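Hello forum,

I keep getting stuck at the same step: I have a sequence, I want structure tokens, and every attempt I make locally crashes halfway through. Rather than fight my setup again tonight, could one of you with a working pipeline run this one for me? It's a single chain of 409 residues.
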Amino acid sequence: MTNESLELEKVFLPFSENELPSSFLNPFPTLNRLRQTTPIRYDEARQCWDIFGYQEIMQILKAPECFSSVVPGKFENSLSLPESILELDPPQHTKLRKIAGKAFAPAALSQLEAKIASIANELIDRVAQRGEMDFVADFANPLPVIVISEMLGVEQNDRALFKHWSDTMVKSPADDSPESLERLHTEQLQARRELEAYFQQVIELRRSDPQEDLISQIVHAEVDGETLTFNQIVEFCILLLVAGNETTTNLFGNFVRLLTERSELQPAVSGNPERLKTMIEETLRFYSPVQALLRYTKQDIDLQGCHLKKDDVLVLWLTSANRDPAVFDRPDELDIDRSPNPHVAFGFGIHFCLGAMLSRMEAQIALDIVMRRLCNIRLAPGTALTPIPSTFFFGLQALPIEFDLENEL
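Reply #2:
Ran it on my machine without issues. Output:
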């Protein structure tokens, strides 16, 4: 693997080695300090720019003509997704998003509402009489996987494999040593190859025998008389799997984590759809599931007094922007009635998360069911929270909870 490839793996490690373990569970003090002292900084060790301020991040996201999503050629051996919506600029991005966006239109998503509710109730039924569960393993992990799998037309027996691939693709290295980076790169490359091989088989089947699923829609969709290439279809499926599963899983887990940290919120939100909606938005801001995005400079450019060179790597720390006191009053306090709440948890601009509406809909339906059926949700005694080993995504590996049933109170 090239040094450039190693460097791209390291860009999501802004913390010192002794800060890494705690940063997985609570990165906010460090990010707050970095935003206050250096809202824009160049890290020589990682060879990238860190952008921590809300204003600076919005300036970048609003100017795709200056700050590109296309990975520069010097990183061509890294784990980039060269034909993914995430890593394209207009006009290619516009055309691909128009095709893919049909599956995420409100009319298409509304057909999933009953299915999401059914899955949520079934998952609760499995654990209700136990009075305890690992909320991540028993609910937050399986629900988004089932929804995305059914949308794509994935076989039920393959869902666990999908989750394994998804988790592997978003892991961060244990440290910034070459050995750790190389080991992670090997694992992720293997997961990617297995995903590509899996989707190749499914795509070929759907070309000749379309089904009522998302892959069939994407395979046969046209814009201006053009269909997607095989690689574009594969990248889109991988993006749906990884971004869709991980973002919503972490949103669910982070939401319930907050319920255990602030027990008074449960009666305040339960049975109140509007307040549930604002708490979901505040969870996205307060415990942002996606911590950062990458951008690349298209030419030499000055940004807030800093001179950036062409093809520089920029890491936009969304989770820092979402706690910027220049935008949010009392940013380190959870306010479930916060309004307005202009967080950037799903990004902004032309690359605003395609699945944001689906993620919000899943949360609104599924978490409403959780709160209507379960009461007095609390951490299991002796629980030590176990964060996912990632500085790109923010969430928990496990969340053991105990609860009472609503009809028992």
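The first strand starts at residue 40 and ends at 43. If your local run keeps crashing, start a new thread with the error log.
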